[in-house]
Write a structure and sequence with these properties.
By secondary structure, this protein is α+β, with helices and mostly antiparallel strands. The protein is built from ten helices and 14 strands. It has a four-stranded antiparallel β-sheet, covered by helices on one side. Strands 11-12-13-14 form a four-stranded antiparallel β-sheet. The protein has a three-stranded mixed β-sheet with strand order 3-2-4. Strand 9 and strand 10 form a beta hairpin. Helix 3 packs across helix 5 and helix 9 runs antiparallel to helix 10. The longest helix has 16 residues. The relative contact order is 0.14.
Amino acid sequence: ILRNSDPYSYVLYLWRNRPSIVIGRNQNPWKECNLALMAERDVVLARRSSGGGAVYHDLGNTNYTVVMPREAFTRDMCAEMVARALQASDIPAYVNARHDVAVDGLKISGSAFKLTKQRAFHHGTMLIGADLTRLHGCLKSQAHDCIDAKGVASVPSPVVNLRDYSLSLDHSSFCDAVLRQFANTFAPPGEVTVVDTASDQRTVDERCRIQTWDWLYGQTPEFTHRLHRSFAWATVFATVTARHGRITDVSIGTAKSALQPPPGSRLLFADVAARLKGVRYHPSDINECLLSVINSDSPRASELCDWLISNLSYNTISSA
C-alpha cells in the first residue's frame, strides 16, 4: 500500500493477526523475545518495516495503518483520530508524550512510523480484548542481559484492554468508529472507498516475504552474545558476534588469571571458533557445523559444543 497507492491519497487499513510478537525493523529478536516460550504457546514472530518496539498481537487486538502524503504527516495526527473515535464511545482516551493512545495512564495503543520521499504511514495497535496472560513472559528474553545489540530496545509500558472500559466495544464496532473518524478527518463526504486486499497478488507476495528467515532474523543489526561457564576442567568465556543473522566473529578462551587449561584446549577453542564463523544463527546450522566435534572422542569438546549450542540456539524459533 505504501509503495503502490496514489502519493496524494489517504488510506486506512484495518487488520488483525493470530497470536504474535511483532518487533520493529531494527530490533533483535534474540534480545527482545523469549522465542522458546513463544513456540510453546504457539505465538509466532513477525517483523514490521517500521521502527519502534515490540508489541503483542492476537485476535483481541485490532491494528490500524494510515498511509498519507508525507507533507501532511505528523506523529500525533492519526493517534488523535483514534482517540476521538474512542471518545465518541465514552472512553476517555488521549495521546501521551510517546504518541501512544492511553486511558488513565495505561497504554491501549502503541505507535510506529515509516517515512519515504512522498509517503508516510502510521501503524497503531488497539488492545480490545487481548489475551494478556498469553503475552506474559514472551517479551522477556532469557538472553537479554547477555546480548549487546545495536538495534532499538523496547520500552515496556503498563497496558490495559478496552474491555475494562466498555463491554460493548469489539473489533467490528472499533473499526466502524475509526472509519467514521477517518472519513471526517481526511476524506470529503462520500469519497471513502472500502476494498478487501486479502486476495491481491501483491499482498500475497508480501505476506510470503515477511515470513522468511531472512526477514525475521536476517534483518537483525549487528549484535554480540557474551557467555561464560565453569566446567570441571576450566572456566570458559565465549564472545559471538553476528550480523544479518550470520556469525561473523567468535572468541573462546579462559580467564587470563586462571590456571592453564588442559593441553589441547586452545586448539579446540580455535577449531570451534573457526567452524562457527559464517554460520547462520540458527539451531540446525549451529548444530550441524559442530556435529563432528561433538562426536569426537574428546569429552571436553563435546561439553564445550553442547554448551554453545544450547545457549546460542535455545532462544530461537526453528524456521527455514
